[in-house]
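Hi support team,

I'm filing this because I wasn't sure whether my run with zinc ion finished correctly. The job status page said complete, but I'd like someone to confirm that the output block is well-formed before I use it downstream. Pasting the exact inputs I used:
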Amino acid sequence: MSAHPSRRHHRRRHAIRRVAGLTLAVCLAVGAVSFVLHRKQAVPGASAASALPDTAASGSAAETENGLLTAAQAQALLDDPRMVLVNHTHKLADGYTITTKKCGSSTAINKDLQTEAADAFFAMQAAAAKDGVDIRMQSGYRSVDYQTKLYNNKTQYYRDQGCSEADARAKAATIVNPPGYSEHATGLAADLNTPEHTSLDEGFEDTAAFRWLCQHAVEYGFILRYPKEAEAVTEITYEPWHWRYVGPENAALISQSGLCFEDAIAVLQKLAAGQSVTG
Ligand SMILES: [Zn+2]
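And here is everything the job wrote out:
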């Protein structure tokens, strides 16, 4: 019992990522097929993972070529608004509007999520509570104006440390995304905490809440957005507290693939463009 459960989890993810790209791509594609076929009957909050084997047994590959996702199916996944990619190089679309719901007290600020994600959060929080685990929302939807304030504060901190303007901005961007480039502006990102650990730092991974999330968040449609082993791809320092809602079906296939969100989107884009994903 020397290994911490969450560390074992990460090692497993890392091991999966080291497998040849072909295996990952096929895994993602097959998972996506399952998703497509299950979409009509999917129940919000239901365990997509438990539904996948049934689909695999029903001969879902008949709709595809060699079990791979068709370009149209991949495009449908990319068009799913819950799969929107926002990062350093993908700015939130102008005019992006959402309907939000509070995930904290009525007076709490920045604790809202998009309505579907908020409902999923409440279901997840209730399930965790049944297991004796207390999961709280610390920060959800942030307006672009609020993100501007956070980013400017962090940049000033590095200026005060003696960094050049360019260095201060670059360093700040590794911790707080610049305005318009924060996933929190989508209303689909949730910084979670627990009463035993309320600060947003790596210490969160040593909590029962984090261990529970690693086991169950995917069932409610949330994925760990910035895994430790994916820092080079996400360009965001490991954040055990930051979870992203993509919907239970999408979360299941991304989790199965072992890919981080950026890599999963990249595979889907290749498939949608009719390109080989075996390279
Ligand atoms: Zn966050």
